[in-house]
Amino acid sequence: MLVEHTYEIVFERELVPQPIVCEMSRTFRNIMYNIDYLSVSKYEALLRISIVGEIDAVNAAEKFLRDTGVEMKLISAATFSGQIPQVPARTATMQSKEPAVHQKIWVTIVGPLRREPLFWVLSRRFDVTFNILQSTVGDPVSILCLDLWGPPVEIDGAVRFLREKGVDVEFGQTENKPQA
Fold first, then answer.
1. Is residue 13 part of a domain?
2. For residues 68 and 53, what is the distance between their CA atoms, to the nearest angstrom?
3. pLDDT over 90 at 175, yes or no
């Protein structure tokens, strides 16, 4: 049986630049999440997130988040009546000789798209890591600044996916990222 837990999470200043939600999604492959509300500045972030999955998986994801040091409060817990959608498997891409890059993008999400788990799909479908650097959320428009990093071909795929879904994407600064 699937459950949906909704949390309010506060990220303190030192945690804001960390890709915690992206890493949660990669660590717990049997959950889905959606960002219901977000307010990000360089000093603090407030996030309302819904996590869907089997109860043990949702509890493990909650523990993962708590272990990062964020402040969390459970707002609601309910049985989830739907099912977790199938995300197309990652497609094998030609390994690029180009170094990984950081790509800052600005995304504008309007209307019902705000209710779709777009960032969950990004973390599952593309070999990119992302962090939300800034946001302005209102009804019916959300504007977010994302820092994506990974192979250029994967970043291009992630941007193409967002645009195909109807999200407006504008490019910001691109930087080479040193290989680890």
1. yes
2. 21
3. no
